[in-house]
Amino acid sequence: MPVSPLCSPVVAQLEPYVPGEQPRIAGLVKLNTNENPYPPSPRAVAAIEAAARDGLQLYPDPQSLALRQALAAHHGLEAGQVFVGNGSDEVLAHAFFAFFQHAGEPLLMPDITYSFYRVYCGLWGIASELQPLDAGLAIDVDALAARAAAGPCAGIALANPNAPTGMGLPAARIEALLAACPRRVVLVDEAYVDFGGESAVGLVARHPNLLVVHTLSKSRSLAGLRVGAAFGQRPLVDALERVKDSFNSYPLDRLAQAGARAAVEDAAYFDETRRAVVRSREDLALALRGLGFEVLPSQANFLFVRHPGHDGAWLAAQLRERAVLVRRFARPERIAQYLRISVGTPAQCAALVRALTAVLAR
Ligand SMILES: *Cc1c(COP(=O)(O)O)cnc(C)c1O
Q1: Alpha carbon of residue 263 to chain centroid
Q2: Cβ neighbour number for residue 8 with a 10 Å cutoff
Q3: Is the model more confident about 27 or about 229?
Q4: Which of the pair, 2 or 358, is modelled with greater confidence?
Q5: pLDDT tens digit sequence for 97-153
Q6: What would the DSSP string read from start to end of 131-188?
Q7: Residue 195 carries which DSSP code?
Q8: pLDDT interval class at 362 (50, 70, 90)
Q9: Of 243, 266, 289, which residue sits at a domain end?
Q10: What are 165-224's pLDDT values in tens digits?
Q11: Cα–Cα dist 237/211, whole Å
């Protein structure tokens, strides 16, 4: 649909992110948006119910202090080093606004990564410079560091583990980027780190230019609640607060603050469910290799796979006919043959393998 002439001219220039579909098909095996296959902690649900009964006529705490304290305790930080927002997508939007607008200097990022980063660049008018992944589809840290050291840039943004490859970098490699880019922020989006990646949160104390972004959507099973966080030294968090309070004083409602806090405090449930996902991931990787798929090594709750004998789009369409939904990215060309498959419950994974077995036997 054409953009209405009633709009501000900039609206026509936007290139919005397209999220994975959320269809309502009975019996669908939904492995396309990296949601957690397990429900959230029962303690989180109880806290949300209690919050719903108590005080919804009042505004929530604009600082989300109790939640920030819980996150700080979990990560060995102070509450002043924690920022929270309405999903990590909002946290990322504020961070791009706060740290990466530097008069035309380009933001450095991998060519294949979370595609929302480029959307924020478009939204805020930030130039970007893409660094190709290496031949094994890993982030080329040496090339990024060399580019950052060679001349002006607005900063570096990457996902670790990366999306949609699932491949992770050790924290020591993040440190190399921090050292190469001391005058700008290095943003590390750790949406999937709890499934086996190595977090850079421990580097916050030593690196004033590090911002680590987390979400409760994946490893805490709270995609529907919309809570994300950022960790960094106080001046960075203060900057994010300034942006937030210029946009929305109350991004997290009472239910979100209460539920997220209870989820963060339920360490036992967190460990149980993320271990179950990691176990299923390893079992699924084995099964897919058995079917002839190439499977990238994943530290996330999804697998990035391709079959040497079958077209990616065809495979995704065949699976859809069998009520199994996976994600495929038509661009860039280099990853067009891959399927990104979220790790489900053992039963969902088995249904996927059954469907693929039938498709490949045709
Ligand atoms: C899912 C995802 C997000 C968004 O998480 P929300 O908190 O649900 O907004 C951010 N970054 C990456 C890399 C993701 O995969």
Answers
A1: 18
A2: 8
A3: 229
A4: 358
A5: 999 999 999 999 999 999 999 999 999 999 999 999 999 999 999 999 999 999 999
A6: EPP-TTS---HHHHHHHHHHS--SEEEEESS-TTT-----HHHHHHHHHH-TTS-EEE
A7: G
A8: confident
A9: 266
A10: 999 999 999 999 999 999 999 999 999 999 999 999 999 999 999 999 999 999 999 999
A11: 9
Task: Report pLDDT digits (tens) over 339-350.
Answer: 999 999 999 999
Phi, psi dihedrals of residue 19, rounded to the nearest 5°: -75, 160
**For residue 332, how many other CB atoms are within 10 A of its CB?**
12
141 and 276, same domain (yes or no): no
Over the stretch 111-125, which tens digit does the pLDDT of each residue have? Answer: 999 999 999 999 999
The answer to whether residues 94 and 32 belong to one domain is no
Q: Is residue 3 part of a domain?
A: no
Asked if residue 193 has its Cβ within 6 Å of ligand 1, the reply is no
Closest ligand 1 atom to residue 34 Cα is 1
- One domain for residues 342 and 274: yes
Atom of ligand 1 nearest to the CA of 33: 1
Instruction: Report whether 157 contacts 187 (CB < 8 A).
Output: yes
Asked whether residue 74 falls in the same domain as residue 19, the answer is no
**Do 227 and 329 reside in the same domain of the chain?**
no
Domain count, the chain: 2
The mean pLDDT value of the chain amounts to 96
Strands 128-131 and 82-85: unpaired
Domain of residue 23 covers 9-39+268-360
In a domain, residue 255? The reply is yes
Q: How close is the Cα of 5 to the center of ligand 1, in Å?
A: 32
Shared domain for 116 and 134, answered yes or no, is: yes
Nearest-atom number in ligand 1 for the CA of 163 is 13
Instruction: Give the number of other Cβ atoms within 10 Å of residue 358's Cβ.
Output: 12
Ligand 1 pocket residue status of 88, Cβ below 6 Å: yes
pTM score > 0.85 for this model? yes
